[in-house]
Amino acid sequence: MTKAAGRSARDSVWREGGGRRGGRGGQPSGLDRERITEASVRLLDAEGLAKFSMRRLAAELNVTAMSLYWYVDTKDDLLELALDATYAELRLPDPENTDEDWREQLRELATAYRAQLVRHPWLSPLAGRYLNIGPNSLAFSRVVQQVIRRTGLPAHGVTGAISAVFQFVYGYGTIEGHFLARTADTGLSPDEYFEQAMSMVDEVPGTAEMMQESKTLMAARGGDTVAEMLDRDFTFALDLLIAGIEAMVARG
């Protein structure tokens, strides 16, 4: 993972064991890290990463900005806490339940991760900036590793399989989240925005032939709405990856 600007690989809010660092006076009443983190997630969802600040969060909580520093030292700490909090939303399968097929458990994890990325568009840039060593993130990573181990892949192939599946999901969910955020800014529905975009591209010189090929492929794929098209592509791509894992296991 890359690190946040100005922070070393050793800088993490989780190194402090959840406690506050240093002392800046008495603890403000009515505040705790859980409430601050929940408000941070709500604010990031509503206004995005670019507008997030300690001052804006303090206004949301109806406290002074200095009150927040009793619990965290920097905005980076808050973002790291908010990032981990989103992983608590994920329903994790039991990798030790041998009655459940690993393929279905992997699909469940991948689908949940995609939805998480779409639900919180600010998550994807933060996932590359922090170590992701919070308890919820680690719980997700551990279950993913355990499910991939159940595939029968040799130990040296486990991390590669994890990368293939979840870096695909990361990219897919990130692009989908950006698309939905862009359509929301226009006031159009995703289907209306898609239709306008396709019409506009048709008018650009030199694109007609390429767009006709693309339209033929999209028609073959099926799906009347943007949501259906996105779901079908995601499902098919994930099936390809699972089939690849099966093929590698069969090759021994």
Main sheet specs: none
Uncertain ranges: 1-5, 19-24
In one word, what is the shape? flat
Content of β-strand: under 5%
The pLDDT mean sits at 88
Helix proportion: 55-70%
The number of E-state strands comes to: 0
The H-and-E topology, N to C, reads as HHHHHHHHHHH
Count of helical stretches:
11
Structural class: mainly alpha
Radius of gyration: 22 Å
Distance between the termini: 31 Å
Describe the 3D structure.
With 252 residues, the chain is mostly helical. It has helices spanning 33-47, 54-61, 65-68, 75-87, 102-119, 123-127, 135-149, 155-186, 190-202, 208-221, 226-251. Mean pLDDT is 88; it is low at 1-5 and 19-24.
Summarize the SSE layout with pairings.
Layout: H1 33-47, H2 54-61, H3 65-68, H4 75-87, H5 102-119, H6 123-127, H7 135-149, H8 155-186, H9 190-202, H10 208-221, H11 226-251
Helix pairs in contact: 1-4, 4-7, 5-8, 7-8, 8-11
Produce a short descriptive summary.
With 252 residues, the protein is mainly α. The protein is built from eleven helices and no strands.
